[in-house]
Each structure stands twice: as structure tokens, then as C-alpha cells.
């Protein structure tokens, strides 16, 4: 308040009397005045900055508004009603089973092997040592047919297009003699999502939906009667739950 000149004359005199005998207080006041000057200088210079910076700021605001509108349109459209319902069911199942996974790193022992390989494949975006084949986003029909043959059961490529994601590639890796299919997606905001599908052996346990966070984003994994699934990506629990519901 003293630096801002917001005190009465009597209070100003009291502060100045203290400053005369308190070096630490004088130093603090000097720093506040310095930062205050920096703020005022930055504010006064704002109107003289190049126009392109102002345009860039407006573009960012517009892009954010368009993105929010696009998500509202998607979420209100009939094409996503099943996904929205699936997300609600997934979330309900998560809370019912108390399935928040205890691990938060990529090497935690709480993760099944296929989940670890998914997280590693997402983080590195390559798995050359264990990779057996790779397909571009334009070859998904061929990729799915070949991957299904390798797994000896029919799989489908996850449909994330309705959430704004485009498939970039798919590949098959080997994890402990298990084939793991990895599908890579990216949205217009350059956010990447990795989905894995691998066969579930008869001797293996099934997993209800597990949600946690890794070093590279949110993680969801679960099983059905024949397959294991994992999804890495998304900004928060709501994102990863919606992605998992779309994959399911």
C-alpha cells in the first residue's frame, strides 16, 4: 500500500519512519517498486507492439472458441451418443471398482506387460527393436486384416475420428511372445493418442477399467473376454474416459 501510494499521510509517515531504521524493509520496498515499474512499462508498451502479435493473440482466442464450439457440436450430435453413454458407464465402473491404478510411472510393477509396451511405444513413438510391421494411415484395411491374422482373431481399428483424431499409423510389436497392435492418432491440436490391442490368454486375468497417469499423459486399460486394451493420451480423466469409451 505504501508503494502504491494508497496510505494516508499519517500512515505514510509511520512507514517512512520504520524504513529509516529497517534495511530489510527498505530492500523489500525497492523490489516492489522495481516490479511495479516493470508492470507499468509493459502495460504502456502493449499498444505499440507489432500488429502481428496482436493478431496472433486474437487468433489464439478465436481458435480456443472454435475448439470449444466444435466439441459442443460433437457432444450434442447423435454420432457421439453411444460414446458419451459408454464414457458414463466406464466412469461408473471405475468408481465402483475403485480402479485408480497405484502406479504413476512408466515402469511401475502395477501395470501388465502389454500396458508397459503401450506406454513405451507411445513415449518413443517407435519400437524398432521389437517391431514386426508398420502401416500408414491409408493402409488401415490391410493393417487390420494382417494384424487380425497375426493375433488369430478378428480385431477392428479404433474409431476416434468422431472425436477429431486422425489415424497416422499402425504397427505390430512383440512383447514377451505376445503380439501387440499399436494404433497412433493425432488431432488438429497436435495431441497424440496411442491405442493398443493384444490377445488375452486363457490363463490371464481380465482387468476392469483402470485409470492412472503416466509421464506422457493419461492411461486407461481394460480387458474383455478375448482381448486386452490400453489407451495413452488425453489431458485429463474426462478425456481418457471418453477415448476409452470410443475404443470400446
Structure in words:
This protein is of the alpha+beta class and 248 residues long. The protein has 7 helices and 7 strands; from the N terminus they run αααααβαββββββα. It has helices at 9-19, 23-45, 51-76, 81-97, 113-124, 140-151, 237-247; strands at 131-136, 166-175, 178-186, 192-199, 210-214, 217-223, 227-232. The chain has a 7-stranded antiparallel β-sheet, with helices on both faces. β6 and β7 (227-232) form a beta hairpin. The model is unreliable at 94-109 and 125-130 (pLDDT under 50).
Write a brief structural summary:
The chain is an alpha+beta fold and 248 residues long.
**Structural class, please?**
alpha+beta
Strand order of the largest sheet: 1-2-3-4-7-6-5
**Biggest sheet: strands, sense, closure?**
7 strands, antiparallel
Which residues sit in consecutive blocks of at least 5 with pLDDT less than 50?
94-109, 125-130
Number of strands: 7
Percent helix range: 40-55%
Mean pLDDT: 75
Task: Provide the succession of SSEs.
Answer: HHHHHEHEEEEEEH
Gross morphology is elongated
Straight-line N-to-C gap? 58 Å
Number of helices: 7
Radius of gyration: 27 Å
Strand content: 15-25%
Amino acid at each position: 500500500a505504501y508503494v502504491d501510494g494508497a496510505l494516508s499521510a499519517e500512515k505514510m509517515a509511520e512507514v517512512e519512519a520504520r524504513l529509516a531504521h529497517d534495511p530489510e524493509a527498505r530492500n523489500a520496498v525497492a523490489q516492489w517498486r522495481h516490479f511495479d515499474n516493470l508492470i507499468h512499462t509493459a502495460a504502456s508498451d502493449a499498444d505499440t507492439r507489432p500488429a502481428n502479435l496482436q493478431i496472433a493473440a486474437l487468433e489464439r482466442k478465436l481458435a480456443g472458441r472454435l475448439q470449444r464450439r466444435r466439441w459442443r457440436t460433437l457432444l450434442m450430435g447423435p454420432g457421439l451418443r453411444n460414446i458419451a453413454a459408454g464414457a458414463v458407464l466406464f466412469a461408473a465402473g471405475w468408481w465402483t471398482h475403485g480402479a485408480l491404478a497405484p502406479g504413476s510411472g512408466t515402469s511401475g510393477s502395477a501395470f501388465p506387460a502389454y500396458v508397459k509396451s503401450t506406454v513405451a511405444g507411445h513415449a518413443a513413438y517407435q519400437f524398432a527393436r521389437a517391431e514386426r510391421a508398420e502401416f500408414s494411415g491409408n493402409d488401415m484395411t490391410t493393417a487390420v486384416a494382417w494384424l487380425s491374422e497375426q493375433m488369430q482373431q478378428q480385431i477392428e481399428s479404433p474409431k476416434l475420428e468422431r472425436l477429431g483424431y486422425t489415424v497416422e499409423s499402425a504397427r505390430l510389436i512383440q512383447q514377451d511372445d505376445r503380439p501387440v497392435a499399436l494404433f497412433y492418432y493425432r488431432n488438429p491440436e497436435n495431441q497424440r493418442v496411442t491405442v493398443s490391442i493384444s490377445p488375452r490368454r486363457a490363463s490371464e486375468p481380465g482387468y476392469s477399467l483402470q485409470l492412472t497417469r503416466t509421464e506422457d499423459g493419461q492411461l486407461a486399460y481394460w480387458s474383455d473376454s478375448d482381448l486386452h486394451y490400453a489407451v495413452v493420451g488425453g489431458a485429463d480423466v474426462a478425456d481418457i474416459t471418453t477415448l476409452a469409451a470410443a475404443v470400446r
